[in-house]
Design a protein that fits this description.
Length: 299
């Protein structure tokens, strides 16, 4: 993808673009507060602040596994992660599990008591019905299978917001927001604010340049993987080469993700064996493979 194509994608990007979404919410905490409150009215939020290290420009879109669109903390200490997901790609359930574990790692330093872990909420806005039950909101908490009334009370909650659900028995403002995500039609004050914020972000040459750098970097890495695959595929034919290229692209990205996660978690997990085990569980890869990736990087 050349600069002209990237610029075209920037011009066409809307609030549902993950970069624009993160930029709008990180630059407009009043919108973030209102959005979180809209789907969590029990919180009664007075103050909200962004955890600065999670701003979109601090990390590359290449590192999907360690990237949180928005991570904020409320006045009562509750952590809230808000995500935008337009396409049903990858294992979303496992991704949510990983996001949740990252929030805990960031909240608890080595040696601190588990009792100080804050409550946490993950909100994922999806432009599809992940469970095909036609519900506009899916709420998850830890409960027993045989007695659902018994809750683990671990302080965590996941909300999956579905723009394709049945809105007939839904709060009007919640319905209006999900409609806005689905079709871009603004009908309430919150979505009017979002429209204005999107305009301001897209009018900024600074944000445009950041977006273009990230997109170009991503496409260069994908191209690198494809080229490696096509080179290997000369002996096996075009079809085989294309498949290898795709797999090599995924392999390169996974190696980068593992290395970046290693650096991130090393600050919190000092024991090397425990650190490797955490990465092993996160990426579902063998311990030997992780060690090989780390040794190649060091060498």
């Amino acid at each position: 993808m050349n600069n002209k194509s990237v610029l075209k994608s920037w011009k066409e990007a809307t609030f549902t673009n993950s970069f624009i979404f993160a930029a709008v919410l990180s630059e407009n905490m009043d919108i973030t507060k209102e959005l979180i409150s809209l789907f969590n009215p029990e919180l009664h939020i007075k103050e909200i602040s962004l955890i600065e290290d999670e701003k979109p420009i601090q990390f590359s879109t290449l590192n999907k596994y360690i990237r949180l669109d928005i991570l904020a903390t409320l006045d009562d200490g509750t952590l809230v992660n808000v995500e935008m997901q337009m396409n049903k790609t990858g294992n979303i359930s496992k991704r949510l599990r990983y996001y949740s574990s990252l929030m805990d790692l960031n909240a608890l330093k080595q040696g601190e008591d588990y009792d100080i872990l804050p409550n946490k909420i993950i909100m994922m806005v999806c432009n599809f019905d992940l469970f095909k039950l036609n519900k506009p909101i899916y709420e998850f908490k830890m409960r027993t299978d045989d007695t659902p009334s018994i809750e683990l009370m671990d302080g965590s909650k996941i909300l999956i917001l579905n723009t394709k659900g049945n809105f007939s028995n839904m709060d009007n403002n919640q319905k209006a927001f999900l409609n806005y995500v689905s079709n871009g039609s603004s009908s309430i004050e919150l979505t009017d604010k979002i429209d204005k914020a999107v305009y301001n972000i897209k009018s900024s040459t600074l944000w445009r340049d950041r977006y273009m750098r990230l997109e170009i970097e991503l496409n260069e890495k994908l191209k690198e993987g494809m080229e490696l695959g096509f080179k290997s595929g000369k002996e096996e034919g075009f079809k085989s080469g294309k498949e290898i290229g795709f797999n090599n692209g995924k392999e390169i990205q996974q190696k980068q993700d593992i290395l970046k996660t290693y650096v991130t978690l090393k600050e919190y997990i000092k024991d090397e064996n425990e650190l490797i085990k955490a990465i092993e569980n996160t990426f579902d890869v063998s311990k030997d493979k992780i060690i090989k990736i780390l040794n190649n990087q060091k060498g």
